[in-house]
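Journal club prep, notes for RB
We'll compare a predicted complex against what the paper describes. Inputs for the zinc ion case:
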Amino acid sequence: MGDAKFLRVTCEDCGHVAIIFERASTQIPCSVCGATLARPAGGKAELVGSTITDVLE
Ligand SMILES: [Zn+2]
């Protein structure tokens, strides 16, 4: 898997904390409010409505 990481992100809408894969290949919704947290962008997830609080290696 190389250097791919998991990211701990916080939903900007509801504050829910989610763990997402750095190289997500699908859009990732918040499991609480349904807002889009990240979307795939050239092999690496682009955060949309969320902010990174931690990087898990
Ligand atoms: Zn949310």
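Talking point for the session: The chain has a mean pLDDT of 94.
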